[in-house]
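Sequence in, structure out. Go.
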Amino acid sequence: MSKNLVIIPTYNELENVGKMLDAVQSLPVFFDVLVVDDGSPDGTSAVVREKCAEYPNRIFLLQRSGKLGLGTAYIEGFKYGLEKGYDYIFEMDCDFSHNPDDLPRMLETLEKGADVVVGSRYVKGGKCVNWPADRQVLSYGASLYVRLITWMWVKDPTAGFVGYRRKVLETMDLSKINFIGYAFQIEMKFTAWLLGFKIKEIPITFTDRIEGTSKMSKGIVKEAVFGVFQMKWNSLFH
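Output:
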């Protein structure tokens, strides 16, 4: 049986984190969970500690001192997963925009030969629910922009519901992943693609958060817009 780890970064997810951890632990396939909390002042980490006691050796907490960024949270999680010997490592949001019920299907895709699996809104069968029109336009426009600039065929390059075969993360130089916002998601896929790994997209339904507040900001959008161009430019000279 494979060892599977789900990394969930959190900041002020008190309303969601307990329900999410219960949902993952109720799946028919075993997934351990590492919560990387960026010093949430709302008590998120206290709930996680309770769940660590409820599910011993299945849920783990990495507490950081403050808001250090999505990308750095995942990088720390990847290093933890590799160090602990996990075969498959997944990343997902805490707010139920990603449905934990999709995890077994994503794992199966990796077990059948994919190196990276992307839960995609923009392949046949994928969709967004309860998302404002402006966010949908921004997201889909970003995916077209990334494909145009990078020449990478992935239809949902900004997706944050992703699974990796261990060897992908071992092969990458994680210290050279530069971006910390949503551009991090693009950079990870682009790096895996440049290294020749097989990326497979499967359809998911993305549902906008019901509880808590979005972490999207103008700075994150700006990083993605300029970062993608810089990333492609750098790749041409290495």
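Check: The chain has one domain: 4-236. The two ends are 39 Å apart (CA to CA).
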